[in-house]
Design a protein that fits this description.
The protein is 78% helix and 0% strand. It is mostly helical. Helix 5 runs antiparallel to helix 6, helix 6 runs antiparallel to helix 7 and helix 12 packs antiparallel against helix 18. InterPro entries: MFS, MFS_dom, MFS_trans_sf, Sugar_transporter_CS. One of its GO terms (molecular function) is carboxylic acid transmembrane transporter activity.
């Protein structure tokens, strides 16, 4: 008869010692679906700026603050709702986030003014921001450590998949039913999966086991991890719980780490600036070019497809070549692609091919930066270092749409917009080179690497 070992880390012991089972695979699948819904709602407006501007009587350039309000809400949601999940449970917060961005996506379809649009997109962002951290936490809790990186990468692939779905739905629904119908589709998608999520998504066992009143619920979940299990050890509920010490962000600047911290923040912010300026504004900028009307939507669909491919390949490439080399190469190749885009005649086939390759590089690099951050900090401050890098990076995601709106307002052509995007990529490249050289010097003076 299977038993659960009576150890301080009983849950992680069970998960790490067993192969991936049906429960874990179902959880990862549900989280990919949720991430795709999140990606749909985050990116859908980029396909709809032109029709929305015409319908609401607004200049296209005024949508920069609208994009930024969504991303500001996303940042606030991530910071505020992730701690709430530690108190009331991840499943409750996740379903609440899904309900929030579903309702406000529906309200986006009903907006009649610029002020209403700013408000509902900010509130949509709150729900979107709270979902992803809890998805990742659930996946990490239920996945064996040896598979955790692959599982998280797979979940993150859901976001560009959702952006692709947004483009494909917009391409078919927009001409027939208008932009409001696209937002209604985005609101209905999570509702279709709501019942499945409620019935199938497991709550965090670590959260449930804080009280013995949840013994029956914990037993049902653990029995799916260990088929045939009949009893649970009391240590699952009454084991001592030591509170992890709070790590001050000041630690990121102590012991000579201030340089790597500041240098790491630069590529995070610059890469997200590039990513969100492309996702938000390329369809609008292309509408003034002499290309077929649907080219803008196809461009973002292919850019998102490139993101899926880049994210899947990133881990393997970094294992073989090293994080620094892969990231430096990605920004170098991206700059070559931008120069090709500027020099070649603007034709749909070449432009779409270049956008696909840019998606591989830029979105792959975003996944790679998380791995680099984990290498640069010692274990005791690693979570703090990654969290602050992601938080500072969000500044770039807010600035990207604002600067894109400014360029659209100035009447810049697509080649000019991409030439401007060379500047943040050069900043990111210089920062990565400085990190690489700094680590080489550190390794030369200390032969045993610490990262």
């Amino acid at each position: 008869m299977p038993t659960v070992p009576e150890t301080a880390n009983v849950l992680s012991d069970v998960i790490d010692q067993r192969p991936m089972g049906r429960l874990q695979l179902e959880l990862i699948g549900l989280c990919v679906i949720l991430a795709a819904i999140d990606g749909f709602d985050t990116q859908v407006m980029g396909f709809l700026v032109g029709p929305m501007a015409e319908s609401l009587g607004l200049p296209a350039a005024s949508f920069g603050p609208v994009f930024a309000s969504t991303l500001l809400g996303l940042m606030i949601g991530a910071l505020s709702l992730a701690p709430l999940a530690d108190r009331i449970g991840r499943k409750k917060v996740l379903l609440g986030c899904v309900a929030t961005f579903s309702v406000f996506s529906l309200l986006t379809a009903l907006t009649q003014s610029y002020e209403q649009l700013l408000l509902v997109r900010f509130l949509t962002g709150l729900g979107l921001g709270g979902a992803i951290p809890n998805l990742i936490a659930l996946v990490c809790e239920y996945t064996p450590r040896r598979h955790a990186r692959s599982a998280v990468t797979l979940v993150f692939c859901g976001m560009p998949l959702g952006a692709m779905a947004a483009g494909l739905i917009a391409e078919h629904v927009l001409p027939a039913l208008g932009w409001r119908a696209v937002f209604i589709c985005g609101a209905l998608l999570p509702l279709v999966f709501a019942d499945l999520l409620w019935r199938s998504l497991p709550e965090s066992v670590e959260f449930l086991s804080r009280t013995a009143a949840n013994r029956e619920q914990v037993a049902r979940i653990v029995s799916r991890l260990v088929p045939g299990l009949e009893t649970l050890p009391d240590t699952l509920f009454d084991r001592p719980r030591t509170k992890a010490p709070r790590i001050s962000p000041r630690r990121l600047f102590e012991d000579g780490m201030w340089r790597r911290t500041l240098l790491l923040w630069l590529p995070y912010a610059m890469n997200l600036l590039i990513l969100y300026s492309i996702m938000s504004w390329v369809p609008t900028v292309l509408s003034s070019a002499r290309l077929p009307a649907h080219t803008g939507i196809q461009a973002i669909v292919l850019f998102s497809l490139g993101g899926v491919l880049g994210s899947l390949a990133q881990g393997r490439l970094m294992d073989v070549l090293g994080a620094h080399r892969v990231l430096i190469a990605e920004f170098l190749v991206y700059q070559v692609l931008v120069l090709l885009l500027v020099m070649l005649p603007l034709q749909a086939a070449s432009f779409l091919t270049l956008l696909l390759l840019m998606g591989v590089l830029i979105q792959g690099a975003q996944a790679g930066l998380n791995a680099l951050a984990a290498e640069l900090y010692p274990q005791e401050i690693r979570s703090t270092g990654i969290g602050w890098a992601l938080g500072i990076g969000r500044i770039g995601s807010i600035l990207g749409p604002l600067l894109g709106g400014l360029m659209v307002g100035l009447g810049w052509h697509v080649q000019q917009v991409f030439m401007a995007a060379l500047i943040p990529s050069l900043i990111a490249l210089c920062a990565l080179l400085a990190i690489h050289l700094g680590q080489r010097r550190a390794n030369a003076s200390h032969p045993t690497p610490t990262y």
